[in-house]
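Comment thread on ticket #2218

A.B. wrote:
> Attaching the input chain for the structure job we discussed in standup.
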Amino acid sequence: MRLSSAPAMQADALASVDAPTELKAALWDMDGTLVDSEPYWIAAEIELVTSHGGHWDTEKSHDLVGCALETAAGILQDAGVKLSIREIVDYLTGKVTAAIRQQIPWRPGAKELLAQLHARGVRCVLVTMSEATLAQVVVDALDAPYFEFLVTGDQVRNGKPHPEPYLTAVERLRASDPSLGLHNCVALEDSVPGVASAMAAKVPTIAIPHVVPLAPDHRRTTWETLVGKSYDDVAAVLLSAPTAAGANA
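C.D. wrote:
> Ran it. Output below, let me know if you need it in another format.
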């Protein structure tokens, strides 16, 4: 069920320019950032298209990394899949969920950083285009309930690269802390659509490219890996982010 009946609040309305820059929330992408599930998605896409007589390969799958599932399903229809959008989403989600239940390939350093942020009082939220059924399997496999809530692809009208997923997360965080603004949050993302979504929402963004390379962009922070990264590293991102500069002006 989709929780958003209207577009999320505009980013400017979530900014609090007079507040001090303090790390209050970490907004985590899942596929490719927290877990290395992209190979599962790619295998499911190739199997589906091939079963309908079409051709699909890893390179074509890379174009779908980080996209809203409905968007990906439409592209697979164009590749020859003779199923409805909903049927394609259900098929892919089912295949990936089954694979995840067998083995969860955590991204290096991700669980360690997540645990440290949570221990330091940083509110952690999962912002993923996977649907809730799959996301919950991953969350339940963690060592502790690190995530305060999930924003999933079936809970928003507009998926990544639209800013709605991240704006929705910040709105929900503000419900219990009205002083929290965009400059108090950091997004962790690996994909082109995911990074675009977070940046469009004006959330200071850490990109950790994985399956698909990202072009250089001075408006975000780019890390090669999460291994060895700490609370201090994440908090430092806020000091150089454009929103932080505005908040401290």
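A.B. wrote:
> Thanks. Noting for the ticket: Confidence is low (pLDDT under 50) at residues 1-7, 16-20, 243-249.
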